[in-house]
Each structure stands twice: as C-alpha cells, then as structure tokens.
Fold each of these.
Amino acid sequence: MTTSDRRTTEWTVRGTDREEYGEAARVIGEALLAGDDPDTVLERMRPIHDFEGYERVRVAVDDTGGAERIIGATNHFPFEMHLPGGLRPVAGVTGVGVWPTYRRRGVLSSLMRRQLADIHGAGGRYAALWASEGAIYGRFGYGPAVAETAAWVERTHAALRPDAPRDPDLTVHLAHSSEVRADLEAVHGEVVRTRLGQVPRTAPWWDRALRDKPEERGGKGRLLAVVVRGPRGPVGYALYRTAGKWESGGPQGTLHVQEVRATVPAAWTLLYEHLLDRDLIARIEFEFMAVDDPLVHLLANPDRLVREIFTSLWVRLVDVPGALAERTYTAPVEAVLAVTDRYAPWNAGTWSLKAGLEGARVEATDAAPDVSLDVSHLGAAYLGRTTLTGYGAAGLATEHTPGALARLDAALYRPDAAFNGVIF
Ligand SMILES: CC(=O)SCCNC(=O)CCNC(=O)[C@H](O)C(C)(C)COP(=O)(O)OP(=O)(O)OC[C@H]1O[C@@H](n2cnc3c(N)ncnc32)[C@H](O)[C@@H]1OP(=O)(O)O
C-alpha cells in the first residue's frame, strides 16, 4: 500500500506485548528519525518499558489483505506529577509514531481516540506529553501548559551578584554521577514535593538520567555530578559534562548542564558558582531551565543569560469535571463553562465551576455559559501560566459574560512556574 492509497476511516487499534513491541519500536524509531538500527533503538527503550510494562502500548494495524502489519503506535507511562493541588496520576503519553508511508490517513487520530478512552476508562483525569511538533496535539485536546527555556551564558559575563545568599555550613563535592546517586535521589525527591510539573523518578528513570555510555557522549566528557551538602544531608546537585576546545586565542571549552536541582537558596549560589566558573570553559549551556530559575535573579548581569523559550508539557484534561474539582485555586471564582471536546465526548457540555480557597465543585448545568472554550484551552491553563484571556483575545475562546475569562485566569494563576525538565 502506498501514500496514494488514502484511507482515512478508523484503523484497528489494539494492545500488544513485550515480544511484539520490537515491531512497534521499529515504527516509532523510524518515525522519530532515530537513525540507529532498530535493535539499538529497542535496547535503549527496553529498561524503561520492561519496568513500566507493555499493557498500555497501543498499536494501529493495517489488516487489509490478510496479514496484519503494525503501522503506528502510542503508549503512556503511569506517572505521578505535581499539579496544582498535589501529586496526581498523569498519563505520560510517549512513543507516538506512524510508519512514513501511512501518514495523514487518520492513523494517529485512531490511536489518540482509543488512548483517551483507555485512560478515561481506567479513571485517569490527565494526560501530558512533550510534542515533537507543536502543530500536532491541539486537535486532540492538549494545550501548551508549560514553558521552559534552553539557556547559555559566556563565562566572562557569568558572575553572580555579591549579595547572592550564602551559608557557611554548605560544602561542594564533585564526583562521577554514579558515585553520588543516593544524594541526587534525596534532593530530587524533595524538589518533586515543591515544584509544579515534576515527576518522581523511579530506578529505571534514574538509570536513564545517569546513562553514561562512552559511545553516546557525543564528544563530551563523563557525566559529572556536583553535590551541595549541609549538616542534614544533600541540598542540591547539578549534572553536567564538559567539552574541551583549544584555539589559538585560548581555551574555548563548553560546559553542558543536564539538570540542576536545589532545595535551599544558598545551594543554588554554590551550584551556579561551580558551574559558571570552571577553568578553561568559555561558555555554559543549560539544556532545560525553568522560566523562573533562580539564576535569572542571581546573575550580576541577567541580560547576558541568553534564553530560548519552548513549550515542554502539553496537558490534556481527560476528565474535565474531575480535574477542575480537585485543583486548588488562587482566588475564588464562579463560572459556567461550555466545553467542546472532539476526542473525549464525555467532557463536552456545560459545566458549572464554583471554586474557593478551600475547594471546588463542578457540576453539569443547563445554565447559560459565561465562556465557551475548547478542552485544549483548559489543559493549557491548568498549570496556571497560560491564560484563557489569551485564547479570548485570539478569538478562540468566547466570553459571554464580560470579565469572565480574566476572573478565571486570576483563580487559575500560579505564581510558581511549572518545570518538567525531562523529555519522556
Ligand atoms: C508524545 C510523542 O511521542 S511526540 C512524537 C510524535 N511523533 C512524530 O513526530 C514522528 C513523526 N510523525 C509521525 O509519525 C506522524 O506524522 C504523526 C504521528 C505526527 C501523525 O500521524 P498521522 O497518522 O499522519 O496523523 P493523522 O493522519 O491522524 O492526522 C490527524 C490530523 O493531524 C494533522 N497532523 C498530523 N501530523 C501533523 C504534523 N506533524 N504537523 C501538522 N499537522 C499534523 C493532520 O494533517 C490531520 O489534520 P486534519 O484532521 O485537519 O486532517
């Protein structure tokens, strides 16, 4: 069958198992331009998938002409994520791909419809994903909920403010990442409890974060960990690699930061002093940084931190009334929402939201709506930083009661920006 054989009806979507997953991985690897041979792609995916299981993988098959062939796949990990209100079960959607000759014929649409029904059927209220392209997931009800940045700074302009907080009881230690794993896990566990968007990390996810095969280093050095310790244990760490470069004008090395986490302000100071002032380094690059990372304030000249903003998490409310009812709100609000949802029809309808500082109630209603909007807008706004007012100004959400969108935004707002920092 070729791309000219256009079939856009529903495709057969079914579960799979560990053995057959190799075929699905071949499709996903090719779709995502993994480049490696299928066995290498599979070897990289196996540890996480063996841990998380294969029961949530869904494959689309072409069953025309007798034999079945896997032509698309999706999966989701049963994560917990820190959302407004606390740690919640979130379906971490991943491994989405369609075999190149079957694109644009509705394969992904069939997979998404089935996956949402499965998540909902299992009692799930949320799904979240990192999108390969921003144009794909809005139609399936996902909204751009979290903005993060990649960042870099030249070492010559990376001095910290003289009044950056300091604590003489804190000390700095440098080691290979594998030697201090317990420290990293302790700090990360603490950060997950306070930072929106974070996901607790199980053993295979730590293995992945600390994976340091020489052939996969891409010309950089070993994965190092700098740990800050206080009297009661570790309070911060950073994972990074260096890449030396020698030019006629002098050393021009780069320091690549994979992640930085800290639980007290003075630990950020020590970590950044270490990262921003290694000898022979000219430039420091951060792969993922929260939009409100302390470095933005700690640099003596914050303008020298060059940041590129991108969407990390796309969030989908799989159960609109359930998700809105268990969220915490920054201000009381009452509103009637008319919600459209093409892919999860159980959400479509008119909902009355009555939210206070102590809790929220959401019920189906016949009342006239204050706003009409799509489920993707609610997903975008759920973590408190993407405004519904913005969708209104763009003409995508409609305000029937003047001021209703702004009142909803004030109630949904979170002063602390969510940060995920790990592509899944
Ligand atoms: C969470 C993750 O895993 S992200 C990784 C996603 N995977 C990739 O990017 C791998 C490369 N791409 C692919 O494998 C496929 O092109 C997919 C999965 C993105 C899309 O699969 P398809 O089967 O082609 O999608 P399908 O035919 O169901 O398209 C549904 C709609 O989305 C649109 N669409 C699909 N992909 C894209 C895209 N990349 N950009 C813009 N629009 C898109 C289609 O035009 C169609 O629009 P319509 O409903 O208005 O006609």
Amino acid sequence: MSTDQLAELHLHIEGSLEPPLIFELAERNALSLPYNDIDELRAKYEFTDLQSFLDLYYANMAVLQTAEDFADLARAYFRRTAQAGVTHAEIFFDPQAHTERGVSLEAVVEGLADACATSEREFGVTSGLIASILRDKPVLHANQLLDDLLAMQAPIIGLGLDSAEVGYPPSLFVDVFAKARAEGLHVVAHAGEEGPPDYIWQALDLLKVERIDHGVRCLEDEALVNRLVEEQIPLTVCPLSNVRLKVIDNVEQLPLRQMLERGLSVSINSDDPAYFGGYVDDNFSALEAGMGLTAAERQQLAENSIRASFVTV
Ligand code: HPA
Ligand SMILES: [Zn+2]
C-alpha cells in the first residue's frame, strides 16, 4: 500500500458549507440571511450537543438551491481536502434535508455527481457518494428516498444513516437497508456517537453495515469491542467533531491509542469541517498536539482509511 494515500470516509458535504460560501450563495439566489455578516454567523458556532449543531446545519442549507450550488459546494470541499492530503473521499449527502424544502432530488444529485465526476482530474481526489437517511424523519420517507434514488439511477455507492441519534435506533430501518444491500449498495450507519452501544450492535446485526460512523461509545461494551476487532469493522472516528459536540471534553480524552493498540480499525475524519474547526489535516494536527500522535500511528490510521474504503487499491 502506498504511504501517501489517505481516505476520508466520514464527511457530510453539507457540513463543508463554509460561511463565505453561505453568503455568496445567498446573494446568488437572492435570499436574505438572518445574519448581517460572516462574524455574526460564526458567533453561532458554539454547540452544546448534536441537536444544537444540527439546528444550524439544517438552517444554513437554505442557500443550497440549484445543481450549480451543490457542484460548487463539492468542488470547494475537494479543493480543500486535497490540500489536507486526502486522495479519496466517500461523501455523505442528506437528500431529505433538501427535498423537504422544495429542492428536487435531481438537482442535488446532478450537482454533486458533476463535481465527483471530475474530482480526480481537477483535484487528484477520487470520490463516491453515499446518500444518508435522516433517522429522525418517518421511516416511510426513507423507503421512498431509496426508491427514488434507484429509479433515477443515481450514481451512489452506498446508503448511510445520520441526524439525531438518540430515540431513533437502527432497528427502525431494517427494510430500507435490506433493500439497499439487495441492490448492491454499500451500507454504513452513524451509531454510538451520542447513542448507546446497543445501537452499534443493531447496526451490525440488523442493518448489516460494513462500517460504523463514529462508534466511539463501543468502548463501554467489551464484548462489542471484541466483535469489532474480530470482524475488523471500520470505525470512522471524528475527533474535532466529538469535542465540538461535547461527546468528549478534549481530544486527549479520545482513547485513540488504546483503540489502535486493541486492534480496532479506526480512521480519522472531519465529519462537518466547516462547523467543527477543520478538515482532516486539522484533525491530525489536534491529535499530534493533544496526545502526541506519532508518525507510525498516523501511518496506521491512513492505512486503515484506505483498507476501510469502498475502492480496491
Ligand atoms: O455528526 C453527525 N451526526 C449525526 N448526523 C449528522 N449530520 C451531519 N453531521 C452529523
Ligand atoms: Zn457524521
């Protein structure tokens, strides 16, 4: 495996919407924002938990209206993540967050697919799209979304599960995940971010996911850790996200070294870089400063990211 490869496997493209682009798109689409300037908007980026972040994340998406907006968003991410050293990105998007406010699924998919189609040529980053179900919306909407994506032959590589976790267990989505698997899609789910270890068990046993997004709460359950190690289920960990959403107090609290020593397949990801203080390089820098991440550990994390990706290398 080449040493200079790095994959980002846990990135919500809407979470890469930086404040300057929010203002640019508001102007382009003749929308008025409830903030006078970028500083006033940035002052809102203080979160107490996942929901307090999601409220702003969904509100800011209002500026994303056309296929061009989505393409510009994704290109901005590819440009920045290439600088971070990322060579492959598997990108989440939240279709329901857009269709529910009147943006067509076609516009969303067309714009993102357009940027992905040229990401390697333009930025040296290979890419794939993963449509994520909003777990706090009705299950019927999730089924309809998958049907719509399949009907339009959307160029997606997988199905994911995100948004408010507690109270919305993976078990709700057994049918839609079974259908996605039958259609040859990869399947992943957010679990064990704020939710309990039981949600990780459910994601594995009921949804049969190939990766767990976040998953840091697995450490509360020794039998679960054993299972994740034995089956080498990748965990896409997001240190700065965990700090900003108060899952942990600081990066030192993330027992990353123990996770690696235990043999868990951990990778480092930015989740929502415009909201949580940076991209993959910023996450690595925080780990170096906070826990003295070594070059060997960094290399291990990079290798894990490539092995956990849905491309063959
Ligand atoms: O960290 C997250 N967790 C759940 N849903 C999300 N949607 C965007 N980011 C996240
Ligand atoms: Zn996430």
Amino acid sequence: MSNHLEAKMGDIADTVLMPGDPLRAKYIAENFLENPVCYNKVRNAFGYTGTYKGHRISVQGTGMGIPSISIYAHELINDYGAKKLFRVGTAGGMSPDVHVRDVVLAQGSTTDSAIIHNTFGGGIYYATLSDFGLLDAAYHAAKDMQIPVKVGNILAEDRFYNDEMDRQKLVDYGVIATEMESAALFLIAAKYHVKALSVLTISNHLVTGESTSPEERETSFNDMIKVALEAAIAD
Ligand SMILES: O=P(O)(O)O[C@H]1O[C@H](CO)[C@@H](O)[C@H]1O
Ligand SMILES: O=c1cc[nH]c(=O)[nH]1
C-alpha cells in the first residue's frame, strides 16, 4: 500500500501505461490486456495489471495535471518499483504540422509549471526529455504497424483554460502540441533513473479548431495504445 494506491507489493508490473482518465485505464485493461486484475480503486484512479503478448503490464489512471501525475509517478516508482512509464493521453494540436487523430511521441516537454524552478532554483531552465530507448522503440513500432507519428517538443501547461499563454511563440520555436503532465513525468523519471515516454493522440486543434468524433477518438486512442504497448515489449 502507498499513500494513494491500495495495491500490494508485487501487484504492479515494472512497465506501466499511465492515462489521465481512469476510465481509459479500464478501457485499455479490458481491450488490450489478457487476464486484467484491478489492483486499485482508491479515488477511482483505477489500476489494472494483466499481460500483453505474454509480458506483464499495468495501466494506472493518473488524473489531470502535474500535481496528480506526480503523485502516481512517485509512488509507482518508489513504492512499487516501476521502471518504464508510458503516459498515454490526449493533447491539443498547436503546430500546423499536427492534425486531430495524429499520434505524437514527446521527445521533450516544455512547461510553465513551477516544478522546474522548485526543483533547481533560479537560473536553471532544465529540459525535461523522454527516454531515448523508449522513443526509438515507439517510433519503430509505429513504423512497423504503419501508424504515422509526429515526434517533437510538447508543452505541459498548468492550466487547460489559459488565454495568457503565447502559443504562437512556442509554435515558432518548434512546440507541436499541448497537454498537462509530461514535464513532471520526465522530471520524476530522471530523478529516480527510470524510463519514461509520452505517447499522445491529438484530440482537438487549438488553432484550426478541428475536433474528433467519438468513433475517430476511439481509433486514434487505439493506435496510441498499440504504439505504447509494442514499445513497452520491444525496449
Ligand atoms: O487525456 P489525458 O490523459 O487526461 O490528458 C489530457 O487531457 C486532460 C485535459 O482535458 C489533461 O490531463 C491533458 O493532459
Ligand atoms: O491538455 C489538453 C489536452 C487535450 N487538448 C487540449 O487542448 N489540451
């Protein structure tokens, strides 16, 4: 048991998929894992462990935003020994190069969160990066499955409703999409020397206004999950 998870030691696999939405954790467990067992219902942050092609994998809902994912990442690593963490989440397109339903691999995450300053103090603007091995595995897994992916710098912002953010400037500097967790996941993974990657699907576009129907969302979610699972067993 940890502060926020009721799983026993050994209930959670080394590799964990981490969707923000706990119901997406249930969906992944029921549709992609063999023999899934629910190990957590605390706060309805559902967590399951099962197997994928014979490999033990867990899926843990993390809630929305940096404070929430930080709690689950910390406890999965420190209380349960997780070694490979894959965020699987939705993101808003920012660059004209990405479109709804695209799968995005986050090479790194820019952030407006105070976690960087709170960790390093003034003057250090630490670049939070995904693990290159997982990124490489995901990129090649997607290629093998003929799922197109975009790779790049994303934004993990503290506010979903954020009129003050100069998104055009970030796009000019190569940021392609926005979500609310990856910088914290990468920072915590770096601190504890474990691997992390975010595999995202573009659910809406902040500039063009494109959005997805529920059926389209399901297909692109499935692509994102397949990429994460294949990368998980390849690396
Ligand atoms: O779809 P999930 O994984 O929740 O991710 C995105 O969706 C939420 C905002 O709607 C934030 O958590 C954001 O990062
Ligand atoms: O954080 C997010 C997630 C999806 N779409 C957005 O616009 N923002």
Amino acid sequence: DLSSDKKALLDFAAAVPHGPKLKWGNNNGNTSICTSWVGIKCTSDGTRVITVRLPAVGLTGPIPPNTLGELDALRVLSLRSNYLNGSLPNDLLSLPSLRSLFLQHNNFTSNIPAFFPHHLHILDLSFNSFTGSIPSNIQYLTRLTRLYLQNNSLSGAIPDVTFLKLKHMNISYNKLKGSIPFSLQTFPNSSFLGNPSLCGLPLRPCSKKKITLWAIVAFAIVGGVAVILLVVIFVFCCLRKVGTDETRVQIRKPNPTGGRGDKPRAEYGGGVVENDENKLVFFEGSCYNFDLEDLLRASAEVIGKGSFGTTYKAVMGGLTTVVVKRLNQVVVNKKDFEQQMEVIERVGQHQNVVPLRAFFYSEDEKLLVYDYYAAGSLMALLHGADRIPFDWETRVKIAVGTARGIAHIHSTGGPTFTHGNIKSSNILIDQDMDGCVTDTGLVPIMNSLPAPSSSQSLGYRAPELFENQNYSQKSDVYSFGVLLLELLTGKQPIQSPVRGHMVDLPRWVQSVVREEWTSEVFDDELMRFHNIEEEMMQMLQIGLGCVVRVPENRPAMYEVVGMMEQVRIRSPSD
Ligand SMILES: Nc1ncnc2c1ncn2[C@@H]1O[C@H](COP(=O)(O)OP(=O)(O)OP(=O)(O)O)[C@@H](O)[C@H]1O
C-alpha cells in the first residue's frame, strides 16, 4: 500500500546520496507523496506509486536492495543521468508491473542482468559501463519496443533472438563481434556502428572462411555477370559525362605550379598549391590522420550547393568519410580567416554543435573539413523524399538539442556573435538522433548576410533583416522559432501561395484559431501518439514567443532552453 511505498522511497533516499533537488519529507501524511514529492506519480485513486522519475538529481552509488525493488506497482522508473554504479539489485529486476526502465548515463559496471521484468516495453541502459555479453534471455522480453544498449563495454556475439515488437534498437559503440543475426538486419547501420569486429548487414559483409565448390562456381558466374555489368555501366557513365556538368568527381593532386591545368571545375582544391605554408590545419582533438594530398585524391560527391559555397562528401581510402565545404566569396584576408577559424573551433566544443575539424586557406581556395553526419539533416528528416515517420520524442530531443547548441554558440561567442543561418538543413542529426548546429561562424568571413540558398531559406529570416542587415542573437532566436514550428507542424517555412500571396509559417500558425491548433496545426503524424497534446501546445507557445516581430520582445536563447526544459520536467517522456 501507499505507506509501504513511502517507506521504500524514504529508505532509498536515505541510502543513496543525492543533490538538494530531492526534498522528500516524512511529514504531511501519506497523501503528500502523490501530490508534492519530486518525481513521484500515483494511481488515480492515490493508493500506489506507479512512476518514479529522478533524472539528473545527483544520485550517487549503487541502488540498494529492499528500496525501489519494493515498489511492486511501479510502472515507470527513470534514474537517468545520475552517478549510480555497481550492479542492479534482483528485487528491482523482478518488479512485476515495470514497463519502462531508464538507467542511461550512469556508471553501472556489472554484466547486463540475465533477467528483467517480464513486461518491459522500454529498456535503456545506454551510456554506462556494462560489461559481458548481451544475455540471450533478453528474448523473453516479448513486449519490448525499444532497446538501447549503446556506448557500454559489451562484448561477445549478439544472441540470435527475434523481437516481435521491437521498433528501435541501438547497440552501437560496444565491443561486440561476429555476425549480426538475420532478425536484426532490418535496423539501420547507426544501430551497430562502433563495433569494429561486427559484420553482416547492414554493416560490411562477413568474410567467408570455407567456400564449397558450388559456391566457387556460383561466385564465378555472378562475378562474370557483375564484370560485364560494370563495363556496361562504365561505358554508359562515360557517355553521359560528355557534355554534362559532373556531380561526382575524382580529386587529383593539383598542378604543382598552382595552375588549374585540366582539372574539372567542380573539384574542390582547384586553387591549392602544396607547399609548407599551404597545409591543411587540423584542430586539437581531431581524430583524423589524413593530409591535404589524401583529401585532394579522395573520391568526392557534391551533396549540396548552399549560400556559402559547395559541400562535398569525400571518401578517403574507402574508409574515412568527411564533409568538405568549399567556400566562395570569402571577404577576409588569411589572418582574419585564421582568427575566425579559432573562434569557430572554440564555439564548436559542445555536443550540439558540429565541430570544425580542419581548414585550408590559399588565395584561390578556402576549404573547411567537418565530420560526416550519416543520418543527414533535419530538413531531410522532415521533408526528404525517403523520410520515415518521425515520432514526438525524437522531435523534442532534436528541438531541445538544437536550442542548447545555439545557446552555447551565443554564450561562448560573445554578445555580438550570431550564427546567422539557422535553418533545418543546417541542423545535422547525430548517431543519438540529437540535433547539431552546423555552419557556425561563417557569416563574418563571407558577404555579411548569406544570400538565401533557396526560397525556403527566406522563411527563417527575421523581419528586421528585410529592413536592415543588423543581425543580432535575437534574429537567431527568430530563426529557431521558425524551426520549432517546422518540427511541430511538419510544414516548410514558406507555405504555397494562398490567393497569390506567399505565407510564412509563423503567420500561418497565428492565423489558425487556438481551439483548432490540435486538429489543424500539428503534424498529422503526431496524432497517433497519446498524452502529448499538452506538451505540444507548450512547445508551440515557445515557438510563437520566438517569432514575435519586435526583436527585444523575443526571449534570449538560454531562456528558450530553460522554457523547453521546464516543459520536459513537468511532463518528462521517459
Ligand atoms: N557534415 C555534414 N554531414 C552530412 N551532411 C551535411 C554536412 N554538412 C552539410 N550537409 C548537408 O549538405 C547539404 C548542403 O549543405 P550546404 O551547407 O552547402 O547548403 P545548405 O545548408 O542547403 O545551405 P546554406 O549554405 O545556406 O547553409 C545540406 O543538405 C546539408 O544538410
């Protein structure tokens, strides 16, 4: 009953050191547990504790037995982002009603337990130091929809299990080895990355040790056909290439005299002269070990042409992939350019900002090197041709992450430092499906305000910028507001003409009466999720607060972050 639940919670708080946020008191009778204790929710009749959410409250040490494991009506337990360590007590692992267990971002070091509550829907043990192999008993969690084990120290082979309901799974960045079981091959490669000894779809194929005679014959036939096909494709490509502007280019070492020679115009590095002064400058902490020559030799593919120049995906030696931005219209000299690169490097030190890894400056050529974000941009996620349904949790994560990234840029860059080009194509998605801001710090070295690279880009531009070019941090706040509305509505920033007039997203949202927001404004895809309406409404209000016309009336970016975090604290999702 509630008094035994209360005792279990107090025993837990007494045994586990924690920060000042947790002020559970023994006074005010039992009912106060359900109404005023931080992180606690009860059944509607107030008789049992069903939710314990204590994210980031400084919990330290192991979870003691006979505390939380006594809450036998508990459905949701979140102790994420604390300093918990040791192993998980058995009573906790046998809670009969537990549906969601969030223990990510702690310091647990034991093996993954061999058994978990039977009815678990969500299990998140990521970003800990769990060791050992993934137990095959995990297959008995037949209702599991989400399984996150990434960034631990798990080893051994992945058990060959079939999860009927599993929709999201991530076991990346462990030490797993062997082949990926067939039943898990439908998950994207981001779910498996960072396990160098893992092979099979969707990663690289496993090498076969024993090949039968039949297999050799089959390989020979398939190989022969493949060679013929390749020859046909090669001839076809050569024919197509003649007279067309090429988008896929082979980078060759430049003419040592610095002349362009016969290099195709689409190549980056067209003006590169290699000598001691003109070297690729890497920043500290960069894990790459290629040099300018490797970069120039890489096979490069144009992935976009933006307002600052052309962006290439460059693959070196079939292994290292980076993104190279070839800037045009740089208006500053080498010294100022280098100074700005240092600023960019400094503001890039945040998990929600894409770090600049290296740069190159010569009179004719300015190159920037970034990590390649395989998941692409927020724009592609929201509006791309091969987009997948995009759930509320992921949208909120990306929105909050992006806001944190911009707030960091503003605070580290100084009061006059702005991003200047916040838009969904400049928000890249990392392996944790978090949003990361790219193209930071380019405006000061280019023609001050970027020319819009598409009509949609105009939709992010704050109204004051159509009158003057006084870019401020509040103009970034406006652009972020548009981006937040884009995430909530699933709509592009500029709507197709209504009676001959282009309508921007903020005006369109404001034109819908508040009572109809739920049915009219929010993305249809979000309608299938339950209990998110209140949170969506609050996020929409924050977005609208960012896009007010008068810059001074917009909140600062750190305030936007605070408001968004408040929404999450009031109704955290996990
Ligand atoms: N590091 C990266 N990893 C993966 N994709 C990237 C990376 N950087 C940029 N892109 C993608 O490449 C494309 C071209 O980017 P680019 O910055 O040249 O143009 P843009 O973002 O469309 O416009 P703008 O120059 O105005 O920012 C965009 O779709 C962008 O999302």
